[in-house]
Task: structure prediction
Amino acid sequence: MNNQRRLTPEVREKLLEALRTGIENGYGYIRIWRMLRESRIIVSRKAVQYWYYRRYPEKVKRRGGYLPRELRIRLHEEVLKLRGNGLGYKRIRRRIGELYGVALSPAVIVYWCRGVHTPYNGIRIPTIDSLEPSPELAYVVGVVVGDGCAFKTSTRSGEYKVGAKAKDREFIEEFSRCLGRVLGREPPKPIPVEDGNFQVRVQSKVLYQLLQKPIDIERIRPFVEHSEDCIRSFLRGFFDSEGSVDKNKGEILCYNTDTRLLEYVQKLLRTLGIETTGPRINTRRGTPFFDKKQGKTYKTRKDVYYIYVKARDRLKFYKLVGFTIKRKQKTLEEYLRR
Result:
């Protein structure tokens, strides 16, 4: 925290005095900050917040946790509905208590009715249920459940990230396009990283909740199996992320450590009339391998399994699924020509 270091001894003394007075009266740090401003004492709000929580942790009464966003959204909709029926604020509060057992603050009800605040503030998609099934969402799911990432940062802000990294720019650009469509924003710009790859990451708590690993297949199923187009897009994203094509034999393979996920992929391929074999073990846990880029030897942490498309169904795979990645698609095309 840099703000407190810039305080002069005189300002710091006045700040601590204001904090002592404010805490005794039960004030929050924002009210104390405003008191200081009214007294023409210039201190940043973050500095006041820092000293408020760090200097007197045993005396500060922290605000309780928020209600889950899903519940707040339902309450918000109910409040607006009751207001539309002509109920006053007190009657709305009483009715919400009867229906949901929640004592909403009168101020919250007023702000919601006037449109000052909503539970949707600061987010593009509030809940998983708000996600609209689409081929673009299915493609994003396929990429992330494969070799993509979904994680929460360890910082205090707790940001939720979803993304992917690969050397094939057209793949990352397609992933970016689909992310933009799903989140209702401009596609995030692929960023070159030091190892010669391109990377895209976005902040989205909802996508993180949907795609955090280990993957919950039941959670992604409604978005993947919504239509045949969604199934095909999911499979293309997964094979872009985890698949490969043998240059000589034309074998279409994909790898993963989660056999349940591979079996689910097999089931979806079967709905398109594409048969596969496996899952079979490819690499045992603890097997050493040499990373050429890092110049180091590592050991695999999990067993790696693979499935591959049967020879008679490779043309069908090419027509119905295929690859976004040009080099993989070209290799498959050349094999099929032979």
